[in-house]
Amino acid sequence: MDKLTGNKISTSDIILYNGKIYTVDKQKSWKEAIVVKNGNIVYTGSSEEALHYKEPATELFDLKGKMVLPGFVDAHMHPLMSADIYMNQIALFDNPDKKSMIKVINEFTNLHPNQEVIRGGGFNRAAFDEQGPRKEWLDSIEKDRPVFIVSGDGHSAWVNSAALHLANITKDTPEPEDGHIMRDPITGEPSGLLQEKGAMNLILKTLPIISKERYKQDIIYLEEYFGKTGITTVFDAKISLDEENYWMAYKECAEEGKLTWRYRGGWYLDPAKNLTDEIEKGKKLSEQINTTPYFQVNAFKFFLDEVAEEKTSYMLEPFEGESENRGFKNFEDKQILEAFIQLDKEGFQIHCHQIGDAAAQYGLDTLEKLEKINGKRDRRPSFAHCQWVTEKDKKRMAALGVTSILSAYWMATDDYYWDLYLPYLGKERVNNMYPVQSLFDLGVNMAVHSDFFVSEPDPMYAIYTGITRNIPKRIFDEKYALNPIYSRTVNEKDNYNKNEIGPLPPFKESATLEQMIYAFTMGGAKSMFLENEIGSLEVGKKADIVILSDNLFELNIEEIPDVQVEMVFFEGKHTY
Ligand SMILES: [Zn+2]
Fold this sequence. Notes:
The chain is of the alpha/beta class. It folds into 3 domains: 14-70 and 536-574, Urease, subunit C, domain 1 (Roll), CATH 2.30.40; 117-204, Diaminopimelate Epimerase, Chain A, domain 1; 212-527, Metal-dependent hydrolases (TIM Barrel, Alpha-Beta Barrel). Helix 9 links the parallel strand 16 and strand 17 (295-303). Helix 9 (275-289) packs parallel to helix 10 (333-345), helix 10 (333-345) packs across helix 11 (357-374) and helix 15 crosses helix 17. The longest helix is centred in the middle third of the chain and has 18 residues, at 357-374. The protein is globular. 51% of the residues are buried. Residues 1-10 have low confidence and may be disordered. The site of zinc ion has 4 residues, from loops.
């Protein structure tokens, strides 16, 4: 294929035979062969029967007994924003501690003397104390140019003095409404950490915009780099109504036939703005940009709350040791209800970021009111992350048809657990995070997300973690093994020693392999109303197909993270 020059990839008809094809159809049936014509599946069944479809131009693939799955769906990520960090900014995702981060930042600034502003992403928030990283550490590397580095979860930014100066943030700057400027406890000067968008935007709005051409390059990089993951459909969970270059890059790539992933997305709604006008604007833009099946924005995105690691998730009970602080509730009840009613009337979907139990509660309260006012219909709202949900609200999620988008990648007693969640939330709450099995049991539609750049897309990792609630050994070795304070445990334990990385309680929430595969394929497809086109390997659907090195059902669980994706087809085109 030739993505860089923009030539359309030819769709030759193909026959895959002699495989172990797990179709994810209703009967969970296995087949030997698939026949594809014009990008669609026209036959599944025996190899013998499939080979009768052969014509002179048909390409044959002998699968030699390999396992085949439908293309994976990542139901909530930030593909373009993340690709730009990897391609054009300081990427700190692989640097666990301060020392290694400083080294990378130093190298990057030296290598890019002409960049006006140094941007970056992915610093490990758990590597610093509650006050976070300091501006002085960046000042010693770069005094003149502004440095702005977003944390690994996207909810804070580490900046130098030049960046603070550019945005005129001083000791006297008042606290922004939906954010927090971290200050030195003695001098009161901003210390270098800006938490949440209200504070981060003070600087972001002063930075130069990213060009459409740069974003188009980012998309091509992204699909090439992550083609090996087997992902073929993604949901971009935050498309800004103000950033034309961003959505135009997708639209043009789609129209030029350059995409080998299918994109859906949600318009980000900023609670500080007039939502009626913003929804009207999003509606008009969607009409303009939904020109192909490869990129469409059919949803609006709400941050019901923020994150636990900044104490900005919205909790039913206060954070540990605080009498009142329950975090951020980002929308007023009346404001969010009016927005739901308006966009629902236009047929848009609702996509919510939800971390805290109180966020789930008011999100569900609003959906119940919406159902009373606009009537019952198959509207499929999504809640991404679902870190804490009460038993009562799990049932309401099922009743309201909410998809729970699993944070499978984050389930383990990892550094966030030890350094941030445990001290901020206490033992009972941290041992009751990320419900999975109980939601499956209630019949909630389940999908999976990487939330890339928060986690690097790697479906085998997420499948393993969904089953074990632990991180794979390979990831432990990369991220923790070099530091002697950490150890890894595989067996479930009731009492962990500090810094023991192991399975996250409650263990009864572990999913099965079948459930994880379902969530990664059909569950994700359903979350975007795409189940008639993708999600399973059945006649009439798009030929999004993944071929694995091993049969997941025949392996020891510990071997799953090392399974390789060997080939990927997107609508019948061989893309990896
Ligand atoms: Zn996200």
